[in-house]
Design a protein that fits this description.
By secondary structure, this protein is α/β, with parallel strands linked by helices. It contains 13 helices and 15 strands. The strands form 2 sheets. It has an 8-stranded parallel β-sheet with strand order 5-6-7-8-9-10-11-12. It has a 7-stranded mixed β-sheet with strand order 3-2-1-4-13-14-15, with no helix packed on it. It binds zinc ion.
């Protein structure tokens, strides 16, 4: 992902709409952006609309223990589908540790083979519930035994071009407070992103109130886990105090609307969280649907049906959730077309791109991952149609 070259886009989103945009890339990063530039003979032409690369903050490529070779082969298919939908970075929330790092490494190899950035979010998962009950037999491969052993195993994973290692506390159910602190300390010492599944189901909140005498958010606050490096996934069953605390601590929130709908999950208070100070991001989670634009519009449309109100999040805010906010949650300086950022960009084409002016509203409400015609990751073309 250290490509160099020049691209010339008919229209591009550079924080505002721009025409005839020359994007010059050196060593995988954007060196210069020039608007209203004539197309140089050596530049690759991008018809249609060019936007920053999309970030898929929460993915479970698989939830079953396959052989590493199957993991690699199937991983390639999933990551290829993501690239073709304009996703240039994926956060793979991984907790199948029965074979140590073998399956995690197979995912990393699959991502590198296809050319997508991967943040392997290695999750600590130790117990069956807040009362300390053990894992069920079919969950045993999730566990390293204890958090120190989790940290020692994760220490053996190495970052590389296009590969970041991040940490996760699976949930307040699956990790006791002392172990949570060990995981968070590991993440902070390594300047790695930290993720957690938070309050997806009411049962987690009820059990937490019973055992810990506080909500899951309050428990995380009490243990010093909340901070701008933390991404809370789902964050659905929250009270007003939880929302204020998450905002004060500048926690990022990852909504996974297509998966949450499928599971019959309630709608997270995303507007209140954003108003409180949280950055919103999105993820494809179960990967039944791989389309970050659908997740971004779902973020808004689900709020509309939950509240009976319209336009709670402006289209530009949704595009920010799908790009730069998500990239930050995964530990990448990408998701914006400006000098210094990683050179990830995606071109969309439809009949309307020839006569309409690019706007975030059309991108979010009128396009899908299937309209992607060209994808560049780190200055290298990985999809072209
Ligand atoms: Zn998940």
């Amino acid at each position: 992902m250290n490509g160099s070259g020049r691209w010339h886009a008919d229209q591009a989103w550079v924080g505002h709409r721009a025409e005839n945009v020359l994007i010059e890339v050196e060593g995988g990063r954007i060196a210069r952006i020039t608007e209203k530039a004539p197309a140089p003979h050596d530049a690759i032409g991008l018809k249609g609309w060019t936007i920053p690369g999309l970030a898929n903050v929460h993915s479970h490529a698989f939830l079953t223990d396959w052989e590493p070779a199957d993991y690699f082969n199937h991983g390639r298919l999933v990551f290829r589908e993501m690239l073709e939908a304009g996703i240039t970075a994926v956060g793979e929330f991984h907790y199948l540790h029965g074979r140590g790092n073998e399956l995690g490494l197979a995912l990393i190899d699959a991502a590198r083979e296809e050319g997508i950035r991967i943040t392997l979010i290695d999750a600590c998962y130790l117990r069956g519930g807040l009362d300390g009950r053990p894992l069920e037999p079919d969950q045993l491969s999730f566990s390293d035994g204890d958090a120190d052993r989790w940290a020692r195993r994760v220490d053996e994973l190495t970052e590389a071009d296009g590969v970041r290692i991040a940490a996760a506390v699976h949930s307040v159910r699956a990790v006791d407070p002392e172990s949570m602190r060990i995981v968070a300390t590991w993440a902070r010492e390594h300047k790695a992103p930290l993720h957690i599944h938070l309050a997806e189901q009411p049962a987690e909140v009820e059990e937490c109130l019973q055992v810990e005498g506080c909500t899951p958010t309050e428990l995380l606050d009490r243990e010093g886990i909340l901070g701008p490096d933390l991404t809370a996934v789902h964050a659905i069953h929250l009270n007003q105090r939880d929302i204020a605390v998450l905002g004060d601590r500048q926690v990022s929130i990852c909504a996974c609307p297509t998966t949450e709908r499928d599971l019959g999950d309630r709608v997270a208070p995303l507007t209140a969280l954003a108003d409180a100070g949280c950055a919103l991001t999105v993820g494809s989670d179960s990967n039944a649907v791989i389309d970050i634009l659908e997740e971004a519009r779902g973020l808004e449309l689900d709020q509309r049906r939950a509240t009976g109100r319209r336009v709670l999040h402006e289209p530009e805010e949704l595009l920010t959730a799908a790009t730069v906010n998500g990239m930050r949650a995964l530990g990448w300086d990408a998701g914006e077309l400006r000098p210094g950022m990683l050179a990830d960009f995606v071109t969309l084409e439809q009949p309307q791109t020839q006569w309409r002016e690019l706007s975030p509203a059309y991108v979010i409400y009128g396009f899908s991952g299937r309209d992607v015609t060209n994808v560049v990751v780190g200055g290298e073309t990985v999809v072209t149609r």
